[in-house]
Fold each of these.
Amino acid sequence: MATINKRFGATDGYIRVPGGSEIYIFGWVDLTGIPENEIFSYRGKAQLLGPLLEAKVGDEVYLTLTNLGMPVRPDLDDSHTIHWHGFPNQIPVWDGVPEASISVLVGRDFVYYYKPLAPGTYIYHCHFEPVEHIQMGMVGPLLVRPADYDPGNPAYKTAYGHGTGTEFDREYFIFLTELDTRAHQQIEAVQEYDWTDYKPDYWLNNGRSYPDTVEPSGALPYQPYSSLIRANSGDKVLLRFVNLGYQQHSIEILGVPLHVIGQDAQRPLGLNGENLSYRKNALYFAAGQTMDAIFTAPSAGTYPLFNRDYHKNVNAGTAPGGMVSEIQILAGSLPPQPGPGQ
Amino acid sequence: MIRNINLWVTDGYISIPDGNSIYIWGYTDAAGKRAQVPGPRIVVNQGDVVNISITNTLPEATSVVFPGQSGVTADTGSGPQPAGPKYDGGGNLVSLTDFADYPGNPGGNPPTITYTFTAHRPGTFIYESGTNPHKQVQMGLYGAIIVRPSDYDPAVPAKKTAYGENTHTEFDREYLVVVSEIDPVLHQAVEQGKDYKIRDFLPRYWTMNGRSAPDTMNSDNAGYMPNQPYGAMIMAEPDEKVLIRYAGGGIENHPLHPHGNHTRIVALDGSLLKNGTEDLSYKKFTVLVGAGQTYDQVFTWSGLGYNPSNPIPTVMPNLRNLGVGDAGWTMWSGSPYLGEKGDVPVGVTSFNQVGEYHFMVHSHEEMQITNWGEFPGGMMTMIAIFPTGTLGDAGTIEGLG
């Protein structure tokens, strides 16, 4: 069991949507290992999504949150928190709900501690004025490996542990959010936004809209995660779906049936261990849900992934765009995957 | 047993924490009382014959449907008939079931109708208007029915269950959360007799048991909310089995997310998730409560075993370096430990009683935890975990019946 020390900064910044517009966001930046006297140079460099957090059951995670403030909105002295969404048996001081514990003021640090109890796909997000801070981008992926996880041994390279039927060769996050650019523009311009008018005009997959979704990781400076999925024919591919938007979404991959082996970081198991996993062509998600699905890569070719709510596959009303991505299946030339989404 | 229940259909007002007052239509349990939202809870036993008499004082016809109940009859004075849809002379559907028409005579006796059904199976159910339901249900004409299993006995732990002995639905405490949403423009239009197009439906408030946060966390029968008698605060002690019954009383679907732990979904729409001996229950951390649907689930919080002699492995900073509470109030005790009280900064009011923990339960469509855009509000409450032995007798839900 390892001790994991991480440090995340909370600040603001800008992302890009197709067409060249820059959109103001709040978000996270990875400060792990950054010398103290360089921390402030990360102000204004928030990324969407936040850095991937990865731990094994039994690890001890010490996660320091540093509130770097908002260079574009120096008047906005909001606190921040980190909430591990779905973490079982949490205690309030590490649960990140300001009304029920504490929040982190501008210029301050706070250490959250987690000892993951169960494997699965989770989420972290800020819980301070969550309607604003989540929509503004303070979200990130969190995955917990089973205690026996061993990427070098196919029988132990699993989502939920040896013998659970969740072996995989490659894994990818499909992290769904939306963007209501009116809200982002109002907040950048120091104006109030009535959140009950929420009406997104961009739909994001791993923080990007199509065609940026299929650009490689690293192609966009503050949107580090591609959602291009690549595999060799015959590979078992694990998709870790997250919906952290405020809408319900229906995701489909044309020609690729999906085996749902996890819901909300739990195997679907009855009280006597009944295996309730199931197969679907379109996966339906409510806000705040996660789902794990495995497919066996079909013959070589390109298979589109998209939102079956077709009106969401647009950028400010123009198709194609939005949550569209691609699954590229190769005949066998792809080397082993070094890490999730890579 | 025969259960005779009388409901009046009338109007009233409910209170929203931002100061707004909303005109409603709703049910109430006595003549002359204002309407309440949701309607009075009806709690009966499996096998009971349930007679529900409706007296309508609204300026239009109304009716009640009982989704999930079979063999419902309606009696408008000429004997019970199978309840069924009503069509006008042109063949257009005007009600999902028999209705109590308004006589156009407010000074005379308002019309009544008696619905009768046998509560064949245990579970959580809804009753609601079947006439102009797109308007009347949104106005507040909805409520919940709990049917206890025939062997229910709250004094015997193995028989204090949602679905009967040996169904793995034992509970220590139970809570009912009926969710809905409010478009104040619709309510104002009905109050003023103006036209309203349901295609313009745009909710600004979201409710649990007819209340928006923070009122959701206040107790049952709080005096300043006479027409919203039911609190939505969930309270338990560590390791207890908490039965949480969700019901979708509105016209939208709401993803409800509890902090603190997963829930195990044991029944949907009053049907146990079992197929013979095969158990089909499952765990979730967010459930999508659909319009008209019910979810019965069991929640347990056990904690991580921290206490002052087994301290947390991080150092709590000086409180001067932290944000505590929201706009001058907090539900935190000031201590990381259950049952301990710590310091809370001067100027912050703590609503914490005995060092209990609070875990939020809320819609994850986050605009729904605002009151017309202002956080905190809306479809949000807390699960309070009290130190073992401090919460008193385990509560069960009571109602008409």
Amino acid sequence: MNTLIVEDEPAMAEEIAHFLRKVGFVCDVARTGKEASERVWMNNYDFVLIDLGLPDYDGFELLQETILCQHDASYLILTASGELGNKLRGLNLGADDYMTKPFSLLELHARMLAINRRKHGLTEPDIIFSGFVLDPLARRVHYGLREVELTRREYDLLHYLLLYRNRVLTRLQLAEHIWGNMADDGPDSNYIDVHLKNLRRKLAVYASTDWLETVRGVGYRANLPHLS
Amino acid sequence: MRLAVKISLYNTFVRLLLAAGCWLAWPAPIPSLWYIVVTVTLGLMIKVDLGYAHFLLRPMRILIRRKLRIIQDPGQFDFVPLKTSTTDLRQLDKRINNLMSQLDIRFACEKAFTAYASHELLTPIAVLRNRFDNIIADEETPDHIAARLVDSQQTLLRLSRIVQMLLCLARIENHQYLKNETISIRSVLLEVLHALDDRIAMKEITMTLEPDTDIVSISANHSLLYTMLVNLIGNAVRYNTDQGHVTIGWGRFGNRPTLTITDSGPGMTPEQIAMLTQYGRPVKATGNGIGLQVIQTISRFHHIGISVDPSTTKGTLITLKFTDIQ
């Protein structure tokens, strides 16, 4: 998917572009509002990520202008401003979502996929792994005909690990995904470990969970064949 | 007592004194008809005085009602000059306008500063956060380096939380949050308990929310009230003992409805209690000090009184006294 990243901080733009390219996106970067304005008139984008705090342009004006020019694209606002007023204004002007810095790149990617599905009326397909079937629509996991009883949080963790299979997810990334801003920042917090332990125990009743690896000192990884 | 009433009472008193002087100085006994005439005249005078004073002070009432009573933020102030032929009131209005205009500028400066600080502080944190994410995800990064980066990411998260809480405090103090919602406290509590359900289950805490009562808070901000309650109840869960209990109850303090949160944890230190209940203490960005300041600032913003029962030797009893209710 073609993505335009409008971000005046070069290091930030570089990190977002690096991540999105790795997961298969084609990225252009515009460091100023003027540059962004020129790019949207010349190219077609599926996604436009806009930082509101641009040096030469009002972010909201740029959003309006780009929506006029490319109304089929999806728009995501990335900003350091946590003000609710700005968020509402952005969404009212036509942005599809709004993320406050600092954010996890995985979370950004997950939201972009969700926007894409919503926009094109797609449903997330069932995920088949190690004999289990995860149904994202019903939020249930089955092994054959039997349902694996998972709590809401266990389901969320499993889904996230499967979405980013073969990639180490840190405890922080997992915690932020399921608790958002309420993720504990204490190093002694072991909620994620307890949830993962329970998840393993529940899945192990039906089949081996060797694919769910603990990466010492870092986090967890689901070692599974890539999704087709 | 209204100023108009005071003025007319004063005028009546002076006239009564004059009438009494005349009566004492009068050489012959006064016929009873005169008493009636004097009483009726005095009554009429009071009415006329009252009406005139009321008329004279009308601009003052407009000033209070239209300009001062509804103001929560200088940005809402009505700067249109008051229509009056009374020089004193015109000058009073002019001075109040000047004062509010200065306040408005100060508020605008502080808002601009918070927005600037937010951008300047959070953008570098975001850059580092994303860079760490990318390096950790890189297959070529050795595990021991990744583990150290995870530690750094944890430190960065703490820094980011502190910055965000300080910015939140600044925004509340600067009235950058709207306070225009009518909110059921019970429904916010249910949201909070839903968000904390797994932590409550993990510690096997008995959570009791007393049934059948609610407080409907008016002129409130939902996200702030949620932040306040999730912090208070989150602390009651986090610092509680395993298999402890938390009870959320309702009560009254005089004519104010109250919400109480009781836990079986280790209790709060006097410094923590002061941080939670006293306004104007310097912000301490260590431990949970800043979190307590955020709770205290949100409660003050909503005119909710907070008290901690000092007699509780084991556990904590926090009482929230609501004012702006339906």
